[in-house]
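Bumping my old thread because nobody answered last time. Still need a sequence for this structure:
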């Protein structure tokens, strides 16, 4: 969950009534030694002792009356780290069923003189009578004067300061490392998508001349018009999927003469998925098959003949018979 700076209540807040004392900001510790103190924890809480809120609309913490560092609106829950290596950490929840459960916490890790200033917690809410109100509580965060500390204390503070500096450097390094991994991962994923997008398989083949067909034959569409991806083999009449994916196949046949009775089948990966029927005709009998199929890599697709005994028809040429297929998507 990210900080939301803009909020729908902003125009209304200009007309606010101040409730006074309905919110409390706790800053621990409220002063720190530059580079020595590990963390400052700021907690913004609805204050049960002041004016009571019925419904909280917004809680935020800002520094020196500038843009909020963090804010939360219901029904958000916050739990994130941001800034260099996660040096700012925010947590929070607004619970309008039990107002006292609501809180917003900002943790500043390894505070430095940059963090000195006045911190304000603002809470916008509806009071018990339903009136829109806004309350704030301020705390000054300052540097601790080290005057009067003994030499031993100064040395040990210096040591701690160096240790904390190293921690900060490590935190930044960790964050950079994570960012680098994430960028690499995204670039890997992009490559994978590009590779998939570049896959292609599309073929269309017809017959070069009239051809007798008999049961058991795989019809050889030997005049190849298109064969992108080289999946179709014109010597065997078999299309072999160069990659897994969703394919569409289409067969159009004109069969005639010789008392043709029987079926022409589209065989996909060993299964006859669809067929057309041809009947005894003096002239051609035309039919077509269309199938959408999900194929594994290397699955074979072919057009096979299964006729009644005694029929000996011809598959007609002149582009009357076409076998086509295309990979729609991986
Ligand atoms: C600030 O200094 C006082 C003494 O002047 C000391 O008692 C206190 O612990 C110091 N605070 C921090 C955060 O070091
Ligand atoms: C809000 O507080 C109530 C009462 O304590 C609790 O039952 C509920 O789970 C809390 N809701 C959330 C989202 O934490
Ligand atoms: C890369 O991203 C994918 C998808 O978001 C995720 O499943 C995977 O765990 C990530 N790998 C690494 C090394 O972060
Ligand atoms: C095409 O099919 C023929 C006949 O079955 C076979 O000899 C040849 O190896 C196949 N070509 C490819 C590239 O698979």
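Sorry it took so long. Here it is:
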């Amino acid at each position: 969950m990210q900080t939301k700076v803009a909020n729908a209540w902003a125009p209304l807040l200009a007309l606010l009534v101040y409730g006074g004392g309905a919110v409390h900001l706790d800053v621990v510790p409220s002063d720190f030694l530059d580079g020595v103190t590990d963390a400052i924890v700021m907690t913004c809480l609805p204050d049960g002792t002041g004016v009571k809120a019925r419904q909280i609309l917004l809680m935020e913490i800002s520094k020196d009356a500038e843009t909020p560092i963090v804010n939360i609106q219901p029904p958000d829950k916050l739990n994130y780290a941001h800034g260099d290596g996660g040096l700012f950490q925010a947590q929070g929840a607004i619970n309008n069923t039990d107002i006292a459960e609501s809180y917003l916490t900002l943790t500043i890790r390894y505070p430095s003189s940059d963090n000195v200033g006045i911190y304000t917690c603002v809470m916008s809410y509806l009071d018990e009578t339903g009136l829109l109100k806004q309350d704030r509580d301020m705390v000054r965060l300052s540097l601790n004067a080290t005057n009067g500390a003994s030499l031993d204390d100064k040395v040990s503070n210096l040591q701690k300061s160096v240790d904390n500096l190293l921690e900060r450097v490590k935190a930044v390094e960790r964050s950079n490392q994570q960012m680098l991994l994430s960028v690499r991962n995204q670039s890997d994923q992009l490559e994978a998508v590009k590779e998939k997008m570049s896959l292609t398989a599309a073929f269309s083949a017809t017959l070069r001349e009239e051809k007798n067909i008999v049961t058991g034959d795989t019809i050889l569409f030997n005049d190849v018009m298109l064969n992108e991806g080289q999946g179709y083999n014109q010597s065997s009449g078999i299309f072999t999927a160069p990659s897994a994916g969703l394919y569409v196949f289409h067969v159009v046949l004109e069969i005639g003469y010789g008392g043709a009775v029987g079926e022409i089948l589209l065989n996909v990966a060993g299964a006859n998925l669809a067929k057309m029927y041809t009947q005894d005709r003096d002239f051609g009998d035309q039919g077509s098959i269309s199938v959408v199929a999900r194929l594994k890599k290397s699955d074979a697709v072919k057009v096979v003949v299964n006729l009644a005994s005694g029929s000996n028809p011809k598959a007609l040429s002149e582009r009357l018979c076409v076998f086509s297929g295309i990979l729609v998507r991986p």
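Helices lie at 10-13, 151-198. Let me know if any region looks off to you.
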